[in-house]
Amino acid sequence: MRIRKSLLAVVLALVLFASILIIFSSLILNKAPNQQNIGEKKLIVVTTGIVADVVYNVAGDRVIIKQLLSEQDIHHWEPSTRDVLEASKAALIIYSSRHVETWIDKFRAAVPEGVEFVEAAENVEFLTVDSYVDPHFWFDISNMIKVTDKIVDALVKIDPEGSDYYNKNAGIYKEKLGNLHKDYLDTLSKFRGRVIITRHDAYRYLGNAYGLITASILGIEEEEISSSKMQYLIELIKKENVKVVFGEYESIDDIVDKFAAEHGLKVLKLYTLGTLSLEDVMRGEGYIYRMSKNLEALVEGLSIE
Ligand SMILES: [Zn+2]
Q: Ligand 1 centroid vs 207 CA: distance in angstroms?
């Protein structure tokens, strides 16, 4: 009886030890493959420069930010196998919107389960133009405030200890965005109802938010426009006495120069922010800088007598 009792105790102890071992090793194994923390920092994978800009302004170097998409424009990029590998290590993947990264579902399916995806512009109201959803939401600065809120929530969820830090930074950034939005409203109020002609159809959100009418040489995804739309554009130039066409810093084709020469227009440039990179943001040439430059160009163009 005595021997049996001590045997039972040994067996129980062994079972207990084994279960602790299993629980402990599964904890280690669960953590390792998906969330690669570099030092203490979490890896945040972002797609566009718009998202990189907000994450950098909110999280600074409390996280490691890796941007997938920079040199190629938003409209012409698809993730590679390397991008999938990079994303697999992330604590969080933040993309702009399914209306911008139209490949996101395919990408998500390729990344192992358990990596969380966050849609930064989830709470933005998108414009629809002839059955197209217009992706260029960032030209209405108030949309960037919504994006900042969404990104703060996502960061706090994976790093609750950073909550105060993220919220403080977000407050500062949102104040800057709010000031820029007000600046646009005030500055452009005297040009209310005026027409701006741009290289591609990217500025409808700007027009809507700040009272300008937009028209363009190319369509929303830089496709050629129909001859009837081109006819409308040419009539609009005459009717509204348009003096300027806005090209893009990001595009090197000569379509704008040709168009300007044909219709006697001056050429000024705007940023589309389609190729914005984390490096641009880090050297102080991010969203706010480029949007301020855009405002200067708009004022210059609309002031031509
Ligand atoms: Zn575009």
A: 15
Are 95 and 51 a contacting pair, CB within 8 Å? yes
Domain 42-181 has CATH 2.60.40.1930: no
pLDDT exceeds cutoff 60 at 33: no
Which pLDDT does position 9 carry in this prediction? 58
Taking the centre of ligand 1 as the mean of its atom positions, its distance from the CA of residue 146, in whole angstroms, is: 20
Which residues keep their CB under 5 angstroms from ion ligand 1? Answer: 202
Parts of the chain belonging to CATH 3.40.50.1980: 42-181, 184-302
Rounded to an integer, the average pLDDT of 107-119 is 93
Ligand 1 centre from 188 Cα, in Å?
22
Query: Which region holds residue 195: left if phi is over 0, alpha if psi is between -120 and 50, else beta?
Result: beta
Quick: pLDDT tens for 36-48.
Answer: 455 689 999 999 9
CA dist., res. 286 & res. 158, Å (int): 25
How far does the centroid of ligand 1 lie from the alpha carbon of residue 200, in Å? 7
Q: What are the tokens at 305?
A: 């007598």
Q: How far, in Å, is the centroid of ligand 1 from the Cα of 289?
A: 19
Provide the residue count of the chain: 305
Q: What is the 250 CA–ligand 1 centroid distance (Å)?
A: 10
Instruction: Look at residues 233, 249, 182, 190 and name the one whose alpha carbon lies nearest to residue 209.
Output: 182
Q: What's the pLDDT score for residue 10?
A: 52
Confidence label for 7 from pLDDT (cuts 50, 70 and 90): low
Confidence grade of residue 253 (pLDDT, cut at 50, 70, 90): confident
The yes/no answer on whether domain 184-302 falls in CATH 3.40.50.1980 is yes
